Amino acid sequence: MSPLPYRANVGAVLFNQAGRVLVARRADMPNAEGAAGGWQLPQGGVDPGEDLRRAVLRELAEEVGTTRAEILEEHPDWLSYDFPPELQAMRIAQKYRGQRQKWFALRFTGTDADIRLDADPHPEFDAWRWAALAELPGLAVSFKRDIYAELARAFARYAG
């Protein structure tokens, strides 16, 4: 077990009006069209002392370029994962053993044109789409699969 701490993180399960969820393809995995791990939910770090609800809305704005969302529910638990050995060379994995995440279900209140992956000068994602909530575990990298399965269970009432 690593002596390193977990990084505080928030994640967004953004539902459209039809009950589908926004997933985005990592820019560093452009050939992962149908592969597990290429698509993920928006998530990101929490600044020290930052309110978690503000943090998830900030992450949505930074990663997918929209502020058109309202929080529906906060998952009651912190969910965590460890970085796998193949990611140990990454800078973040040298400071943290993994991520400890607080997840939120949100309702998208905009239109598809309000999703702007080019809002950040160094975008994390190069494509996005609406997916069925039940698809999430199959889209996730192996070390996030259990978390995505839990989110699909916990937020099922918002799915279409």
From TrEMBL:
Matching Gene3D superfamilies: Nucleoside Triphosphate Pyrophosphohydrolase
Keywords: Hydrolase
Domain of life: Bacteria
Motif Nudix box mapped to chain: 44-65
EC numbers, comma separated: 3.6.1.-
Cofactor: Mg(2+); Mn(2+); a divalent metal cation
Domain Nudix hydrolase: start-end pairs: 5-153
Listed InterPro entries: Nudix_hydrolase, NUDIX_hydrolase-like_dom_sf, NUDIX_hydrolase_CS, NUDIX_hydrolase_dom, RppH
NCBIfam families tied to this protein: PRK00714.1-3 (NF001936), PRK00714.1-5 (NF001938)
Family listed: Belongs to the Nudix hydrolase family. RppH subfamily.
Reported function: Accelerates the degradation of transcripts by removing pyrophosphate from the 5'-end of triphosphorylated RNA, leading to a more labile monophosphorylated state that can stimulate subsequent ribonuclease cleavage.
Record protein name field: RNA pyrophosphohydrolase
Organism: Falsiroseomonas selenitidurans
Gene that produces this protein: rppH
